[in-house]
Amino acid sequence: MKRQLALIRFALGSAHRRTGRTLSLAVALALVTFGYSSVLFLTEALRSEFRLAATALPDLTVQSLVAGRPALINEEQLPAIASIAGVVAVQPRVWGYYFVPAMSGNFTVVGVDTDAETVRRDLSLVMLEGKLPGASGEVVLGESLAAFLGLEITDAVTLPVGRAMKRLELVGTFRSQVALWTSDVILMNVADAREFLQVPPGQATDLAVLLSTPDEASVAARKIAELLPSARIVDRQLMSRTYDLTFDTRGGMMGGMLLSALVSFLILAWDRLTGVGPGERREIGVLKAVGWRTGDVLIARLWENTVIAVYGAVPGILAAYGYVFLARAPGLAEVLLGWSSIYPALRLTPAVDPGQFLVLLCLVVIPFVAASLIPAWRTATHDPHGLLRGAA
Amino acid sequence: MIRTWPSPTTRWHLAWAGLLLAGAVAMLVDAQVRRAAQQARQPEVQSVVRLLGVADLALSSSSRWLRHPSIAEPGAPFADGPAILDNDPAGAAISPPRASERGRHSERK
Questions:
Q1: What is the pLDDT of residues A84-142, one digit of tens each?
Q2: How many C-beta atoms surround the C-beta of residue A270 within 10 A?
Q3: Given the DSSP bridges, would you call strands A138-141 and A206-211 parallel, antiparallel or unpaired?
Q4: How close does chain A come to B20, measured CA to CA in Å?
Q5: Is the dihedral of CA A140, A146, A150, A153 positive or negative?
Q6: Residues A125 and B81 sit within 8 Å (Cβ to Cβ)
Q7: Which of the residues A120, A285, A357, B18 could staple to A387 if both were Cys, CB 3.0 to 4.6 A apart?
Q8: Within an 8 Å CB–CB cutoff, is residue A110 touching chain B?
């Protein structure tokens, strides 16, 4: 223990004496760590937000497919699905997309039964201000969409629906806490949504199926598929898997790009650590001449490189945390999330815990220390006389 | 010979290591506090999912399969245009118009 402490002290002094090399390696390592950590923090946080919401999803979503594309589903199927054992409720949903060419904006229009007690309770929980929508033309907007349209409460906007124009009055906005889900949403009553999206009565966008035992979703899905052979049935678990894959793909793509930066850095580190200067040669020569073994020199070098790696990696991780969760990842969010007319305010919750922090640290520190192992060994095995004479 | 421990160099390193450790602890505590706040707003999030019927995050509304990836059919990108190139790399490479930043950074308390 005492010997290791002495070696660590020597390594710290050595890192301090070669300030230029220590700083350049630590800064380069911090930059690479920052890139990786930012991508990881952002994708993990988005996944965690989805998981938080996924528990409230219907157990099954039934869509109708025509020519491989989603089509409106006939509500006549409702009683047959509702009669399947284990099905608690089947709700036809009217929702869809509304594109405004003048604004190059694609909005999500959602119709709800504004008279239903459960809907009014949910709305009162998620609305920031204004009154609950009820009458025709009254809408609740996501905060980003309201800002995009430049609307305040009680303001009205007229939007084209086919050849006609529809007047919408903003009666409330969603709270910023749910902005990640509602930024582009226009919520209105079902009749308005049908008119807006041109969904005829008796048809719906899809059906939400609630089950008494969610674990039996696959059994219920099979029975629904027998009733509606052309339907696409999505269960809650499949939705969660899709989401994980989506962010794995995007995060992985960024990670792949950053991999070349890490490899370049390791090559740079190898090059820097292999080149032993005259001062360093003399130092090793003196150490070996006074009785240091090759193993001691090697361990001192490993400690020195570990210190450099930690000094670089930890600030990189801390900076990434601040960048993603305090500054809301300007630049990276646009790259990861793609193009859109309306963006939510990225108020994300970090998913990082001590275990993840240590894993991230090890992912950076271990390759760096491993890459420095052979240069350290080559330095340590030099002949002390040759080193002192400057011949090595 | 007078030996002082810790030496000025060691003291400097200990101070820096302490600072990094304090930063890491502060980060983990902050993450924990934010996670607790996230749990506290779970009823609101669940209400909004019940209202909307989907839990997809409104991160990109440029295509239906980017807006609602969990329920878009597997061939959705190709339905938008046969033999279309995947939008994802384009989405990752092309920055949004500056006008859209107005919506992104606007928020209310």
A1: 988 999 999 999 998 877 767 788 999 999 888 999 999 888 888 778 888 888 999 98
A2: 15
A3: unpaired
A4: 7
A5: positive
A6: no
A7: A285
A8: yes
